[in-house]
Design goal:
There is one protein chain. By secondary structure, the protein is mostly helical. The protein is globular and about 65 Å long.
């Protein structure tokens, strides 16, 4: 089966030479979709436990593939509130090389994930420590979690997340009802107070699901496979509710209950697809890396030759000490793509895979 996967990924990457640049700009999602279906099927056949889905390379593969599929379909068709991305995507001249590189990166992540799946052996009888903290301490920590969430300060989110992880861990030692209450309550608290940061809500959601899978060593079988769509739907639900609370849609009184009730109307609205692109940040996850890769091939951005990666070592040193300290690729790209946004202090994100490309071109593949 592994040989078949290797041959398939090489063929789908090389077949790009038979398609025009205009076709690839509009239909890149087809190649990403076919590759994702085949590779995911291959990986799923090697999964034993549900927490295997949280292997870092597996998560990164899913993130890249999903954004490439959805972004590759929606962004080139003009969906999204920021139309400049649509215009820039239409001007890309090197789509074949960009898709080729992305497909090879996805293939590499598939191989790495397969390797980790084969190496990762778990004891089915693994148990967590049964000693519980007192109910009073648990209650105090829960109140502290609510208070920190209420403060809505980004810099204390690590503390907020740590407390929540401990609460979920302790809940696993108690009844199933307690597990559900703690998980749902914590996520609702995040929605009420931290809806401005979808990333923080998603991290709490992922921590909840991962800890439940890992601590209980839930096997991947026909019964538990139903939990996957539940997790996906929960992810979509929390992102959409947070987006409505942030101001998307035509809702006057924005609170948690009204936002939930408004979801059907929001989804059926004429501009939902534009909002969806923004809600899931598809332009930032798909369009900006794609445009940046084209920019470096067109000479608008210089190849970095490893300097943007080396920059991480120099982060603690001010530029006054190392005047050759390179500017981040995000800022370099933003300055060229939207200088007004750059002047206002804004920056546009670039994925790790595209940053490697901007450093080493196709020679980044071995990395």
């Amino acid at each position: 089966m592994l040989i078949v996967i290797i041959v398939f990924n090489l063929l789908i990457s090389l077949v790009l030479i038979f398609f025009s640049n205009d076709f690839l700009k509009l239909n890149s999602y087809l190649f990403y979709l076919v590759q994702f279906i085949i590779n995911i099927y291959f990986l799923i056949k090697n999964i034993k436990y549900l927490d295997n889905f949280f292997i870092p390379t597996f998560l990164f593969l899913i993130y890249l593939s999903v954004t490439q599929i959805l972004g590759g379909y929606l962004a080139p068709r003009g969906f999204g509130w920021e139309k400049s991305f649509y215009n820039s995507l239409n001007l890309i001249e090197n789509m074949g090389i960009i898709i080729f590189f992305n497909l090879i990166v996805n293939f590499s992540l598939t191989l790495l994930t397969f390797k980790f799946l084969r190496k990762g052996e778990y004891e089915t009888n693994q148990k967590i420590h049964t000693k519980r903290v007192s109910n009073l301490l648990l209650l105090l920590l829960l109140l502290l979690f609510i208070f920190i969430s209420y403060l809505q300060k980004d810099w204390i989110f690590p503390i907020q997340l740590s407390i929540f992880i401990f609460l979920i861990y302790e809940a696993q030692k108690r009844s199933n009802l307690t597990k559900w209450i703690v998980a749902i309550f914590g996520l609702l608290v995040m929605l009420i107070f931290n809806f401005e940061s979808k990333r923080e809500i998603i991290m709490v959601l992922f921590a909840t699901i991962f800890l439940h899978f890992y601590i209980n060593k839930m096997k991947f079988n026909f019964k538990t496979i139903l939990l996957i769509p539940v997790g996906i739907l929960s992810f979509i639900f929390f992102v959409l509710v947070a987006s409505v609370l942030r101001g998307y849609g035509a809702l006057d009184n924005r609170n948690l209950i009204s936002a939930i009730k408004y979801l059907p109307q929001y989804i059926s609205s004429d501009n939902f697809m534009d909002s969806l692109v923004d809600n899931f940040e598809l332009n930032y996850a798909y369009s900006t890396p794609t445009i940046a890769m084209d920019y470096v091939m067109e000479g608008k951005i210089d190849f970095q030759y490893g300097m943007s990666i080396f920059k991480m070592i120099l982060l603690v040193f001010p530029r006054s000490i190392f005047d050759f300290k390179p500017e981040s690729l995000m800022l370099q790209f933003t300055k060229i793509y939207d200088n007004d946004f750059y002047i206002r202090g804004g920056s546009l994100p670039i994925t790790l895979s595209s940053e490697l490309f901007l450093n080493f071109y196709l020679f980044a593949i071995p990395f």
